[in-house]
Design brief:
Blueprint lengths: L5 E9 L2 E8 L2 E7 L5 H12 L2 E4 L4 H14 L16 H10 L8 E2 H7 L6 H9 L12 E2 L12 H10 L6
Parallel strand pairs: 1-4, 5-6
Antiparallel strand pairs: 1-2, 2-3
């Protein structure tokens, strides 16, 4: 099987749950909670848009790099990621996900803030939808997005995980 026909995936357990890591070519395209709400939509989108299918195999350099960087994140050894990423989605979704990468560790912003940054203050709901379909959780930190009133809003991995991640990062949001 050619690598361009395949999204190589592997599961790893981390302190607040199990993540599915996936690579296509030399880039990470998937880092989602195994039990996330939108797993079928995310998986279908990746496979359809890449014309590839999931293949469970040992591991590869990209998946190992992501695993190591996630371990470092969870054990407070590092606050940054530099694994090469591949965003699969609409242009709007990619713009949202790139904005999420700009949110510093331990900081939160609202969906409306992201909409403002994108130049479309009326698109907060669309921003929320793009966050819900983020295929690269934690590394693309949609857990740092909160409601305009400071409330913790939905997170595809569950509000409990969102709270865990924000607490771990030292955010004072509850």
């Amino acid at each position: 099987m050619k690598s361009r026909d395949s999204i190589f995936i592997k599961r790893y357990h981390f302190p607040c749950g199990e993540l599915m890591l996936g690579s296509y070519g030399e880039k990470l395209c998937l880092c989602r909670w195994v039990d996330c709400k939108n797993q079928r939509l995310i998986d279908y989108r990746l496979q359809r848009m890449l014309s590839a299918r999931f293949v469970e195999k040992g591991t590869n350099d990209v998946i190992e790099l992501a695993r190591q960087q996630l371990n470092d994140y969870f054990w407070n050894k590092s606050r940054e990621f530099n694994v090469p990423l591949l965003f699969i989605g609409t242009d709007f979704q990619k713009n949202v996900w790139n904005e999420l990468l700009m949110i510093p560790y331990g900081t939160t912003v609202s969906y409306g803030d992201i909409a403002q940054r994108l130049g479309d203050p009326e698109s907060a709901r669309a921003v929320a939808n793009a966050c819900a379909l983020n295929a690269i959780n934690i590394i693309v930190p949609c857990h740092r997005i909160i409601g305009i009133n400071g409330n913790l809003k939905g997170y595809s991995g569950g509000v409990e995980r969102k709270t865990y991640l924000l607490d771990m990062e030292g955010s004072n949001i509850h």
